[in-house]
Amino acid sequence: MKLAIFVEGQTENCLREFLSRWLEQKQIRGIGINLRPFKGAGDYLNGIERSARLALGTRDVLGAIGIIDFYGSTLKYPDGTVATQYQWAKQQVERKVNHPGFHQHFAVHETEA
């Protein structure tokens, strides 16, 4: 079984090792991490709907997670607090994909840090 994780670029490859170690510490075995990088936040936002649906249509994929940098995205956030903007952006991307197995997250700080 696999977990598909969509990221905005190659530098987020560190997430595979980080998440694999976390799963191991929790003694969760048998789940592979399939990291799928895009070429920046714009490419991510344009392609996430198709890519996530394709991945989630695969029998061995348990779920899909999207992670991009909050401040680096090309989304036009509404006025409000960071928490309000975060929830709005999360809903925008999740509605676009429109699949219960997909969950969008934003890194408020650079993921690589």
Characterise this structure.
This protein is α/β, with parallel strands linked by helices and 113 residues long. It contains 3 helices and 4 strands, in the order βαβαβαβ. Strands 2-1-3-4 form a 4-stranded parallel sheet, with helices on both faces. It is globular and about 45 Å long. The relative contact order is 0.22.
Strand-helix topology:
Elements: E1 2-7, H1 14-25, E2 32-37, H2 41-56, E3 61-69, H3 82-97, E4 102-107
Parallel strand pairs: 1-2, 1-3, 3-4
In this structure, how is the largest beta sheet organized? Answer: 4 strands, parallel
Please estimate the helix content: 25-40%
Element string (H = helix, E = strand): EHEHEHE
The percentage of residues in β strands lies in 15-25%
In which order are the strands of the major sheet placed?
A: 2-1-3-4
Structure classification: alpha/beta
pLDDT averaged residue by residue = 89
Shape annotation: globular
Low-confidence stretches: none
By oligomeric state, this entry counts as: single chain
Q: Mind telling me the C-alpha Rg?
A: 14 Å
Span between termini = 29 Å
